[in-house]
Specification:
With 195 residues, this protein is of the alpha/beta class. Helices cover 37% and strands 23% of the residues. It has eight helices and six strands, in the order E-H-E-E-E-H-E-H-H-E-H-H-H-H. It has a six-stranded mixed sheet with strand order 2-3-1-4-5-6, sandwiched between helices. Helix 1 (19-32) crosses helix 7 (164-174), helix 5 (135-142) packs across helix 6 and helix 5 crosses helix 8. The radius of gyration is 16 Å and the shape is globular. It starts with 6 loop residues before the first strand and ends with a helix.
Length: 195
Amino acid sequence: MSEDKVTSISITGVGGQGIILASNIISKLALSAGYDVKKSEVHGMSQRGGSVVSEVRFGEKVYSPLIPEGGADIVMSFEKVEALRYINKLKKGGIIIVNTQEILSSTILAGLEEYPKGIIEELKSIVSRVIPVNAMEDAKSLGNIKTVNSIMLGVLSGYLSFSLQLWEDVIKSSVPAKTMELNLRAFMRGREYNS
């Protein structure tokens, strides 16, 4: 049996952005829909704002959790520099969903280097389907910056064939009860990028 019909999603960003929760939700969603699912995580210096990558693969039969270079159907990046760092994961014709937020590394904060300019334009010169998302500003307007991951999942939902009901059920079962309504509102805000 081949992995021809496997969907591969690479989720990148910086520690503390909710990348692991987002990948857990995608995995749970695919499992609930009856798919075989494999997931991997690389935390790096995630506790200190370092790079975090989580890869989720689902299909009829998945043999490896790792996405080869040029093998991701979708790269979903929670930070612009991280999108550029992992663009080589994306397959030809793939989609990159990128939060336009800029998180300054310690070397930039110390004045040792500058934050790169023109990242979205550079991504567009490499990939034909770049979806810029102003998730941090959207999260602020909802009153909680921790909803960035739910907004990004809302955008992602427009590119996967799972029902809205299944998304909502999995989000409800994955976030604390007190933040459930807020996360569902954030998810719906993300879906507006697809209309």
